[in-house]
Amino acid sequence: xxxxxxxxxxxxxxxxxxxxxxxxxxxxxxxxxxxxxxxxxxxxxxxxxxxxxxxxxxxxxxxxxxxxxxxxxxxxxxxxxxxxxxxxxxxxxxxxxxxxxxxxxxxxxxxxxxxxxxxxxxxxxxxxxxxxxxxxxxxxxxxxxxxxxxxxxxxxxxxxxxxxxxxxxxxxxxxxxxxxxxxxxxxxxxxxxxxxxxxxxxxxxxxxxxxxxx
Length: 214
Hints:
about 210 residues; alpha/beta; TIM Barrel; about 40% helix
């Protein structure tokens, strides 16, 4: 999908890590800090209950010119006219998701190996999530790959790569230098007191590297 620019700081809002704050508060603060992409991830609520939240985030991100991605649910992404959906290895196949979403929306796939990355690209994914880059407590996705693992993927993959897993302001620069188009964060931004400042610290690494998506 060519119409949406994907890159920079990619913040995943998940109330399981936001120390009591709701999605709207987290997303507004992250956008103020320079997030260029926001993903809504909510495992605890039904589609009925998460729908009004997603609709509100769609309005916020649209007004801010920020890309809005829904985790897992093609149905929810369609219902709120999100910019795209992010799928896991066990979710709906890319081809079926594309038939439902059409060509106008992004489809991202979580990958943890070169084989999965190559398959995602061949299947028509618009971007891949790759990780974990570093050790993380937010999701059990296997052994950390490190910047060197990301660099090896970058050499083989032509679509954008969103690096994820244990990334923060201290190590984001190394991840960007290894070839990440975006860095996805959860706890490094949403689980701290000052979300906006944390987002600025990481988004600023792209500016220092000569790539600004803000």
